[in-house]
Design goal:
It is a single chain. 45% of the residues are buried. The radius of gyration is 20 Å and the shape is globular. Helix content is 28%, strand content 28%. It has 344 residues and is α/β, with parallel strands linked by helices. A hairpin with a 2-residue loop joins strand 4 and strand 5. The longest helix is centred in the middle third of the chain and has 18 residues.
Length: 344
């Protein structure tokens, strides 16, 4: 089968490799349809690591995908051959203390698609997944929407970590796919006052169309002062979807006392810092958002019902042999890119 492999920093090759096969009774062979390029994939492409997860070359990245069932193991009863499915990239053990507590997203034996040391990714023609990672699509859902359900599920999960009232105000710092997913999830909960920031005007325009009450570019204005002008008491919650020191600093300034800071974006540095005087005096709660947990099906239901629109996030499409071109586009934030899809 064809597969795109990382062979070095900012180096990719299209190779022919052996296709995977079913080895366990509960496994399913999938033919990939679409793969989304995620910021975490780009981290591996540009730096070869995220924290302690270091790439050993060659390696296949990619974890946002939709697929069609080709073959099933004898114990599979969740999907059938020819089913179109969304794929949860997290493969959990179901037995550790975290899984027993319903915290599968922090499973101690977690294997994640496209994560070094855990599992190869999905930038290839076929993959094998356990059946409990697969979610059959409604007839009215597209394969594109199935791909986008993965980042949207993170937004849905993040919103579940805070109790927002009909009068709540939130700021979303960083309006890429995850920031826009948090915006869509907040809109689905009827949060009325949503303030989005980003360094790319095209993304801010999308956020405005998707329901943000206000948008601003910190390269051209003091976004903290502008937001607090509209909401003098501050934010109930800030979703940091950029993972930058600047946005973390802005978050503390924006939050009201007892506000919640949700760290969703993955910082590229090993350490970040906070102005502890400000954080302590306001009694800010810091919540780390680790992917998603039990939110895939609710997210698919939101899309299928029409409560959430994700189609607007798709800005670019590429063929498999153009994967490096797609990664370079996303790496450099060119041409107003939000979500680039790889078509197989």
């Amino acid at each position: 089968m064809k597969a795109v492999m990382l062979t070095g920093l900012r180096q990719m090759e299209l190779r022919d490799i052996d296709p995977p096969g079913i080895r366990r009774d509960d496994e399913v062979l999938l033919k990939l349809a679409l793969v989304g390029v995620c910021g975490s994939d780009v981290h591996y492409y540009t730096t070869g690591r995220i924290g302690s997860q270091v790439v050993e070359y060659p390696f296949i990245v990619g974890h946002e995908c939709s697929a069609t069932v080709v073959q099933t193991g004898p114990a599979v009863d969740r999907v059938r051959v020819s089913d179109r499915v969304a794929v949860d990239p997290a493969m959990v053990c179901h037995h550790c203390d975290q899984c027993r507590q319903g915290r599968e997203n922090t499973c101690r034996n977690l294997r994640f698609l496209g994560c070094p040391g855990q599992a190869d990714g999905c930038l290839c023609e076929y993959i094998v997944m356990p059946q409990d990672c697969l979610y059959p699509l409604n007839d009215n859902m597209t394969m594109e929407q199935a791909v986008l359900s993965e980042p949207l599920a993170i937004g849905v999960y993040a919103l579940r970590q805070v109790c927002l009232s009909p009068n709540s105000s939130v700021a979303i710092l960083g309006s890429g796919p995850i920031g826009l997913s948090a915006l869509a999830a907040a809109r689905a909960q009827s949060v009325p006052k949503i303030f989005n920031t980003d360094l790319i005007d095209a993304r801010l325009a999308l956020a405005k169309k998707a329901g943000a009450a206000w948008t601003g570019n910190p390269q051209r204005q003091d976004v903290v002062s502008a937001i607090l002008h509209h909401q003098p008491e501050g934010m109930d919650a800030v979703f940091d979807c950029a993972g930058k020191q600047e946005t973390l600093d802005q978050s503390l300034e924006l939050l009201k006392p007892a506000g919640k800071l949700l760290l969703i974006g993955i910082p590229e540095t090993d350490r970040i810092s906070f102005v502890i005087d400000q954080m302590r005096r306001k009694e800010i709660t810091l919540i780390n958002v680790r992917r998603q947990n039990h939110c895939v099906q609710p997210t698919l239901d939101l899309i299928a019902s029409g409560q959430v629109n994700v189609d607007f996030m798709i800005t670019h499409r590429f063929k498999l042999h153009q994967t490096q071109q797609a990664f370079e586009l996303v790496r450099q934030y060119q041409d107003g890119v939000v979500k680039a899809l790889i078509e197989l």
